[in-house]
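Work package 3, deliverable 3.1, input record:
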Amino acid sequence: MAVRPVLVLPHQVLSTPAAPVGRVDDAARALAQDLLDTMSVSPSCVGLAAPQIGASLRAFVVDVTGHRKARSCHGPFVMFDPQVTRREDPESAREGCMSVPDLTGDVSRAKRLTVEGTNTDGVRYTLEVDAFEARAVQHELDHLDGLLFLDRVAGPHALFERKVYR
Amino acid sequence: MARFSLSAVGADRPGIVAGVSGALVDLGCNLEDSTMTILHGHFAILLVVSSPEDVTSEELESAIEPVAQAFDLTVAVRPLSGSNGNDQKPDSTGGEPWTISVHGADRPGIVHAVTSALAEAQGNVVDLATHLVGEAGSPVYVMTLRATLPGGEAGEAAAEHVRSSASALGVHCTVHPDESDLF
């Protein structure tokens, strides 16, 4: 259980598709706890993927609890080897990322998503997420494929520099 | 290290950016921030380039000259002050980020009215784009800009001042704070 440093561009792991976790063992559970611990020290951070802390594995955590834009909210949850089975209703909104501290960008994401993954007990489960939680999940899923919001930004005028990282 | 701004405009055709960037890299320069876009059929380049310390404006202009001739570009080069090897970008953007969108029937004065109201409210334009579209008989003007405004109530008052300046010209204006979330 530890707070790990969040890697930033141009670290290569951020652009590398991650490997499956497979069987959930103590190492996987420790990774999940590290992700939760690291996410929790940044109050404005609502999700974190394993590659962002240097582990090129298909695992992420999300917690949109208390966020003013959240509709669905499943509290803090961990997913290993996630898979989207349905996505609907694209919508554009501005995203930032702890691994890209100097920029934000407008990205189109599905407003409604069905995603299945494995929990820390090794059990496969499914979540229906929408609105803000759906965006957070899709952002983290991209990290597992070696993609950043920069890879999906709508165009040159949809990318913005930020001086203060909130 | 030295820094220069370079602007170039010419009738648009393929190869301009490849040509200009090639001349810059051959001189040992690094193209930093830029914006390049087609404006009414003309390609407009505005860029900041860093170079080895001993490169002068004249050398930069000479290096670009063959490309400027080939593509019939009007080019201007200017040294930028404050480039003493410091990599930090100068920051004039205090305040909170807002987005302003304006659209309506085209007429002279729209950009001036909105940006004057912004300046009066201590706002600063960060990025701005306009488009003149629509039919010949009913041209439409669309402006989108990002600006910094003071925070809190002063920001709301500034936003209202900008909205009313646009209304006075008969164009629609929305002003809203930028929000982004960290994932």
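Chain A has one domain: 12-161.
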